[in-house]
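Provenance

Sequences were taken from public entries as deposited. Structures were produced by running a predictor on each sequence independently, with no templates supplied. The record for Vesicle-associated membrane protein 711 from Raphanus sativus is shown for reference.
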Amino acid sequence: MAILYALVARGTVVLAEFTSTSTNASTIAKQILEKVPGNNDSNVSYSQDRYVFHVKRTDGLTVLCMAEETAGRRIPFAFLEDIHQRFVRTYARAVHTAQAYAMNEEFSRVLSQQIEYYSNDPNADRINRIKGEMNQVRNVMIENIDKVLDRGERLELLVDKTANMQGNTFRFRKQARRFRTTVWWRNCKLTFLLILLLLVIIYIAVAFVCHGPTLPSCI
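Predicted structure for Vesicle-associated membrane protein 711:
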């Protein structure tokens, strides 16, 4: 899975978050929120080990995600933009006064759904390429996390790879069941057509026997 963790925050106040695997990314993300300089709108990325924390700050609202390094920048920032728009559209002015985790129960489900979509659906990247909305991401420099966290503050990033593999296994089984269902319906349709064709042939044969010129009528 490309994206493993995400949160939405106002300053250092986390309003909603979700993680798709067992990890301490939440703790490190909160450290980043405290250390990211300035209050201006910005897009920044910080790498740690084989993972990258991508941060998008717009109008005082910060959306952050942790993704695998192989995910690049376009998909994570497309995800962040999508989450920002959904969050503002859903909660509007409440964003500026909400207490910590006030939206977590409801919006964590949205984070989960969109993490799944941007991590596994090829259309997520294709749509953004067509729209051409992520060109500005090319200018986002990926810096080491030591840029914002002192070495004494930095925590080792722990990611449960087993849980991640289990998630991949679940998706594979789900796709396999969907494929088997599709094949089953296709076979049913083919069987129905063959039975229908056989009935038509039998009907024609019976009609020919009963009404043929050399045989007496069956009536």
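The mean pLDDT is 79.
The helical segments are 25-35, 74-91, 104-120, 122-131, 161-211.
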